[in-house]
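Supplementary Methods. Inverse-folding protocol.

Structures were first reduced to a discrete structure-token string of length 174. This string, shown here, constituted the complete conditioning input.
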């Protein structure tokens, strides 16, 4: 494999990153303020991928452009994905000054909580006050197990019309 220094390909990588980041801003994929960070991610991906460059498979320019395109596409997909965790508020922990217009929401959340087992109810209440990593430590369970339980709980809340895909918002969901 040919040894090639990043300094040699930097001008090509910089141009490719700038062109793709600018296009992402123009097409509204990312905000203008995120353009430089987008460029830097592309350059960092090139730097990490450079040891895998094989001149028998592609030119330096093609290799760099494909690496940057793949990395920036991955960033766009990640930004469009739902956040991994949406906070779920318990009706019993909502503040006393909670708007009366949201009384239905309180009732619906309480209704869903009533259908949950003791462990799941405890998990929901812990997630209201703690991060998933903290809840994992508190309950003494692996994070992967916790993530599965959260996904199952989220489906229950969404099925009840609460949360991101439901009719009403619950907690910090958007």
């Amino acid at each position: 494999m040919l040894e090639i220094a990043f300094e040699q390909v930097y001008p090509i990588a910089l141009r490719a990153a700038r062109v793709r980041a600018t296009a992402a801003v123009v097409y509204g994929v990312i905000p203008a303020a995120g353009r430089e960070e987008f460029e830097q991610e592309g350059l960092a991906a090139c730097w990490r991928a450079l040891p895998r460059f094989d001149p028998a498979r592609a030119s330096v320019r093609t290799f760099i452009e494909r690496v940057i395109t793949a990395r920036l596409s991955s960033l766009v997909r990640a930004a469009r994905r739902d956040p991994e965790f949406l906070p779920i508020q318990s009706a019993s922990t909502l503040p006393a000054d909670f708007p009366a217009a949201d009384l239905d929401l309180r009732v619906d959340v309480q209704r869903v909580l009533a259908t949950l087992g003791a462990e799941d109810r405890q998990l929901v209440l812990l997630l209201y006050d703690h991060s998933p990593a903290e809840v994992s430590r508190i309950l003494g369970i692996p994070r992967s197990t916790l993530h599965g339980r959260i996904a199952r709980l989220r489906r229950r809340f969404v099925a009840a019309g609460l949360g991101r895909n439901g009719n009403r918002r619950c907690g910090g969901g958007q």
